[in-house]
Design goal:
The protein is mainly beta. It has one domain: Aromatic compound dioxygenase (Protocatechuate 3,4-Dioxygenase, subunit A, Sandwich), CATH 2.60.130. Helices cover 9% and strands 25% of the residues. The strands form two sheets. Strands 1, 4, 8, 9 and 10 form a five-stranded mixed β-sheet that branches. A five-stranded mixed β-sheet has the order 3-2-5-6-7, with no helix packed on it. Strand 5 and strand 6 form a beta hairpin. The longest helix is centred in the first third of the chain and has 12 residues. The radius of gyration is 17 Å and the shape is globular.
Length: 222
């Protein structure tokens, strides 16, 4: 069921995510073996053809608007690292996705006439010193031909180093998603799946999702 987020202090969220999530990560760089690299997936046709006026990491509230977007609120976080487990700081993480009606912020999106004008649809975040990123968004929904997913891009400086998509672990539509199944290898598929789980003590059905992104050779390594 879709939920409407009650009014909250946006500045409190943007200030507090790093502090509240800091305990989620163990000391980086302590892996005995190289990590499996996150599989690349296509950018797709709906990267915004015009970026919204607001491009921060809270996709539920645009600028100082009072009315939030509709959808199942999700706190999405993770760490960007190389295959040795070393965090990558100041990496630009971009996400874009449909709103709860399945509409992108793109001029050719289907369901454009039903688009939720309160949903930002796109956000970006520079990873911190531990390689961490944070977003507040809505749980992705399906649209014709695709299982629910969130598009991701990671860049260092002016160079994009990964384009991929995050899908919902356990989603029945995954079995029929052509782009996911095209990855073939089970490890590759698992690298782009994560659980969307109930947020502890939430009274409005909020979710939390944690997804680490593992890169191969990057601009910083070079």
């Amino acid at each position: 069921m879709n939920l409407i987020l009650p009014p909250t202090s946006r500045r409190h969220f943007l200030r507090g995510t790093g502090l509240s999530a800091a305990a989620l990560w163990a000391t980086p760089g302590l892996f005995a073996e190289e990590l499996f690299r996150t599989a690349a997936m296509t950018e797709g046709p709906f990267y915004p053809d015009r970026l919204p006026l607001d491009t921060d990491n809270d996709l539920l509230v645009i600028n100082d608007a009072i009315t939030p977007a509709i959808g199942q609120v999700t706190y999405l976080s993770g760490q960007v690292m190389n295959q040795s487990g070393n965090p990558l700081r100041n990496a630009l993480v971009e996400i874009w996705q449909t709103d709860h009606n399945g509409a992108y912020i793109h001029s050719r999106s289907s369901n454009a006439e039903r688009r939720d004008g309160n949903f930002q649809g796109y956000g970006r975040f520079l990873t911190d010193s531990a390689g961490r990123y944070f977003f507040r968004t809505v749980k992705p929904v399906a649209y014709p031909g695709r299982a629910p997913h969130i598009h991701f891009a990671v860049s260092q400086g002016s160079k994009r180093v990964l384009t991929t998509q995050l899908l919902v672990a356990g989603e029945p539509l995954n079995d029929g998603d052509g782009l996911l199944q095209r990855l073939g290898d089970e490890k590759a598929k698992q690298s782009v799946l994560t659980e969307f789980e109930p947020l502890a003590d939430s009274k409005v059905g909020e979710l939390t999702a944690k997804w680490d992104i593992v890169l191969g050779v990057t601009a910083a390594d070079a």
